[in-house]
Amino acid sequence: DIRIRERSDERAGHQPSVGDIRKRKRSDEREGHQPSVGDIRKDGKAMINRNEVAREKLDQAVKLMAENGVDMWVVYSRRKQDPSLELLFNAGLQNEVLFVIAKDGQHVALADESDVAALKDSGLYARVTAVTADTIMGEFKKIYDAADVKKLALNMTAEDDRCDGLSKGLYSKLCGCIGKETMERVQTSSFDMLEY
Q: What is the pLDDT of residues 66-89, one digit of tens each?
């Protein structure tokens, strides 16, 4: 733990050099260390645990869904098109990914095999399923059909580019999956929930 090492160094009269800090960081990364809220940066300020921030944002999302009568919130993106991926899910993924924010808090991530381990390790999702561009809609259809969706929020809007990560192509895939008429009946913009 960085805090323990720094305190130990201070008691021994040793001021860690920039090289020492870099070595520790590389060592921590090799060991799979995720910084905790109490980890200290070189300038003495506490680091933020991005998974905890994402967990708080997902909890807020569930509250917003309840307030707006939304049954399911889908954030579907690829190649980092959606700016909310990092803030809401702590995920800067390059591949096609579909997140289902469920009103019961049992969130699901459908992602490329190369992204699955990191998503599972985050602890943010009840289920993480490896998919390809060809199988992602089949997996989403199972989730959608199992839920009683009367109102579906999507990451698309004309009002704010921060809530507009769903491309026309991915929207077409969603329509093909659940049916265009169903989509027209249930869809709403996630921006509508966020606008105060």
A: 998 999 999 888 876 676 777 677
Long-range CB contacts (< 8 A, 24+ apart) of 135-142?
136/96, 136/98, 136/110, 136/173, 137/173, 137/174, 137/176, 137/177, 139/110, 140/74, 140/98, 140/100, 140/110, 140/174, 140/177, 141/177, 141/178
The helix/strand/coil state of 96 is: coil
pLDDT at residue number 49: 81
Local structure of residue 142 (DSSP, 8 states): H
Output helix, strand, coil percentages for the chain, rounded to the nearest 5.
50, 15, 40
Question: Tens of pLDDT along 128-157?
Answer: 999 999 999 999 999 999 999 999 988 887
What letter would DSSP give residue 47?
A: P
**How many whole angstroms separate alpha carbon 61 and alpha carbon 168?**
24
pLDDT of 5 reads: 45
pLDDT at position 179 is 94
**What is the b/e burial string over 94-111, where b = at least 16 CB atoms within 10 angstroms of the residue's CB?**
ebbbbbbbbbeeebbbbb
3 state SS of 160: coil
Taking the C-alpha atoms of residue 172 and residue 145, their distance in angstroms, rounded to an integer, is 18
* Tokens of residue 42, six digits: 């070189």
3-state secondary structure of 129: strand
Q: Among all chains, which residue has been given the structure tokens 């869904």?
A: 65
